[in-house]
């Protein structure tokens, strides 16, 4: 057994601590007070798209319970709250008349955060595109550049005097890959002809969003968030190594590198050369942006092997349950060093100014027993990943913050309500909130600056026998 200890103090006095949610996963009220339909409102009605045919129509009912949830953030001593705005709640058809009731709702959230001493971190797009825009092609239609600019303008003009921290897009690789290539997420499109233009337009919108915010509010602190997974080959063979390199280019490099002026990683992913059909004059310069910070969102590593059965990529990810490792209920390997490796990887980019871990957490089966949720595995997960964040802090001068995903249990996209990531348990029948032991641990860690965290071996932490 190894024993290590660390405290909040070790991260420095200016390190940013927070918790995160998204609008569609928590708000509910999907058709109340003038909100328009989103692509997810339509997608969840299709058979066999969502586990157990769950819908997000109520979720954790944050639309009604936002004060209670913000009160819980305050009680847990979490100083920063990341949440997203719903595009169709603010502009129901995506481009037309503004829904004042939608703006008023977010004013109330922001105001309540501020009076509670909590700093809002606002994400502009977390996957809930207005359905009317999808009917015009959505992210695969180049008009999205104008639609998105107009939406960002409305939001920033409304909240510029209250919000300092903005995030443009949440995980563009996921919403374009799962939504426009694999068809697993809304809007359920498949194939390169959907994915390549959606990808390119999302890259451009990263920069458009940044520039639009800065034009309206030059002192705003603006970033965007990127999903990332530490990629390792399944063996020392040349074929597996090349396959891993391709997957790394796809999952970790595809959206950050063009924004830094490095172009698309076409050497490793030749199929991306098709993007030339969608690149207009001036796009190469337009996509460049130097964010004030980037958010990286890491949960696991992926082990990759060569295969001839995946066209263009010639690679496959070997599921964690096939590798005899400890994994979460999402079948994601618990591999704390992954977050160190990803922070280190993004630190190496010269154009990256600051890095925040804007999502990190774990889904495990949770149960309320005698009024408590003893989610020891989640607590140990957060501890072990934080140890690696601290390790990265020792060499990464750009590392500035850490946000747990998520505040409450919520609608987990195609996984419905089965997967629980929250620090707070939600009884979806009664909407009762119960702070889990992991939430209490995070509270204690943040509130007692000199509190030390004891870290046993990873096997002991995660109850591996």
> Would you identify the regions where 5 or more consecutive residues have pLDDT less than 50?
461-465
- Which structural class should the secondary elements be placed in? alpha/beta
Average predicted confidence as pLDDT: 95
Major beta sheet summary: 8 strands, parallel, barrel
Spatial order of the strands forming the largest sheet: 2-3-4-5-6-8-11-12
Percentage of residues assigned to helices: 25-40%
Distance between the termini: 14 Å
Count of DSSP helices? Answer: 16
Count of extended strands: 15
Q: What is the approximate shape?
A: globular
List the helices and strands and how they pair.
Elements (H helix, E strand, L loop, with lengths): L3 E3 L9 E5 L2 H4 L12 H5 L18 H14 L4 E5 L2 H4 L9 H16 L3 E7 L5 H4 L9 H16 L5 E6 L1 H9 L11 H25 L4 E7 L2 E4 L4 H16 L2 H4 L23 H4 L6 E5 L3 E6 L8 E4 L18 H11 L7 E5 L16 H20 L3 E7 L18 E4 L4 E4 L1 H11 L5 E3 L2 H4 L4
Structure commentary:
By secondary structure, this protein is α/β, with parallel strands linked by helices. The protein has 16 helices and 15 strands. The strands form 4 sheets. An 8-stranded parallel β-barrel has the order 2-3-4-5-6-8-11-12, surrounded by 5 helices. It has a 3-stranded mixed sheet with strand order 7-9-10. Strand 9 and strand 10 (315-318) form a beta hairpin. Helix 7 runs parallel beside helix 9 (192-216). It is globular. The two termini are 14 Å apart.
């Amino acid at each position: 057994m190894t024993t290590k200890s660390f405290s909040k103090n070790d991260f420095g006095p200016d390190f940013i601590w927070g918790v995160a949610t998204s609008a569609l996963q928590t708000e509910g009220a999907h058709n109340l007070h003038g909100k328009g339909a989103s692509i997810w409102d339509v997608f969840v009605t299709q058979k066999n798209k969502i586990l157990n045919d769950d819908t997000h129509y109520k979720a954790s009912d944050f639309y009604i319970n936002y004060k209670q949830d913000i009160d819980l953030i305050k009680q847990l001593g979490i100083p920063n709250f990341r949440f997203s705005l719903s595009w169709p709640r603010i502009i129901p058809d995506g481009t037309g008349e503004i829904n004042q009731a939608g703006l008023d709702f977010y004013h109330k959230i922001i105001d309540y955060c501020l009076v509670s001493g909590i700093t809002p971190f606002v994400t502009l797009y977390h996957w809930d595109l207005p359905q009317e825009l999808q009917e015009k092609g959505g992210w695969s239609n180049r008009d999205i550049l104008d639609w998105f600019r107009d939406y960002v303008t409305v939001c920033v003009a409304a909240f510029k005097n209250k919000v300092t921290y903005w995030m443009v897009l949440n995980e563009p690789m996921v919403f374009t890959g799962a939504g426009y290539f694999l068809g697993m997420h809304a809007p359920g499109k498949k194939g390169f002809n959907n994915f390549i233009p959606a990808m390119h337009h999302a890259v451009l919108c990263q920069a458009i969003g940044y520039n639009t915010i800065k034009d309206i509010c030059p002192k705003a602190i603006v970033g965007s968030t990127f999903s990332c997974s530490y990629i390792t080959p399944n063996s020392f063979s040349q074929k597996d190594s090349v396959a891993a390199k391709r997957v790394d280019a796809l999952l970790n490099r595809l959206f950050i590198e063009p924004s830094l002026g490095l172009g698309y990683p076409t050497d490793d992913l030749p199929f991306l050369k098709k993007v030339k059909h969608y690149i207009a004059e001036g796009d190469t310069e337009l996509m460049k942006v130097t964010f004030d910070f980037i958010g990286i969102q890491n949960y696991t590593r992926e082990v990759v092997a060569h295969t001839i059965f995946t066209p263009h990529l010639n690679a496959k990810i070997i599921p964690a349950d096939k590798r005899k490792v400890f994994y979460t209920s999402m079948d994601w390997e618990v591999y704390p060093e992954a977050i160190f490796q990803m922070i280190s990887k993004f630190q190496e980019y010269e154009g990256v100014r600051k890095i925040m871990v804007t999502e990190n957490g774990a889904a495990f089966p949770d149960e309320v027993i005698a009024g408590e949720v003893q989610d020891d595995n989640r607590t140990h997960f957060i501890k072990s990943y934080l140890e690696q964040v601290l390790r990265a802090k020792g060499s990464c001068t750009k590392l500035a913050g850490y946000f747990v995903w998520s505040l409450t249990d919520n609608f987990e996209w195609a996984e419905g309500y089965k997967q629980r990531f929250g620090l707070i348990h939600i009884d979806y029948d009664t909407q009762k909130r119960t702070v889990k032991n992991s939430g209490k641990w995070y509270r204690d860690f943040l509130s007692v600056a000199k509190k030390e965290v004891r870290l046993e071996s990873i096997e002991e932490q995660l109850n591996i026998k």
